[in-house]
């Protein structure tokens, strides 16, 4: 069986199902799908503790950059 990259798998799935895919911006896990007319990928944060922590750290860093 040929190895398929994650990107190819997702694109294949999205094309077949006419759905947008929501990926975790940190670990790139598929969080879910949403119906859409255009093929697109959205980035959000999944429920893993490590990703939630990174999200919190990022938001603290952004906050500091804004007030600096
Ligand atoms: Zn994640």
Instruction: Give the radius of gyration.
Output: 15 Å
- Mean pLDDT across residues: 85
How many strands appear in the DSSP assignment?
A: 3
Strand order of the largest sheet: 2-1-3
Helical proportion? 40-55%
Helical run tally:
2
Write a compact overview of the structure shown:
This is SR1 protein. The chain has 68 residues and is of the alpha+beta class.
Fold blueprint:
Layout: H1 6-17, E1 19-24, E2 30-35, E3 41-44, H2 49-67
Parallel strand pairs: 1-3
Antiparallel strand pairs: 1-2
Bound molecules: zinc ion.
Zinc ion binds at residues 24, 26-27, 29, 46, 48, 51.
How is this structure best described in words?
It comes from Paenibacillus aquistagni. This is SR1 protein. With 68 residues, this protein is an alpha+beta fold. It has one domain (6-67). 46% of the residues lie in helices and 24% in strands. It is built from 2 helices and 3 strands. A 3-stranded mixed β-sheet has the order 2-1-3, with helices on one face. It is elongated and about 45 Å long. The mean pLDDT is 85. Bound molecules: zinc ion. The site of zinc ion has 7 residues, from loops.
Features:
68 residues, alpha+beta, SR1 protein, binds zinc ion, 24% strand, three-stranded mixed beta sheet
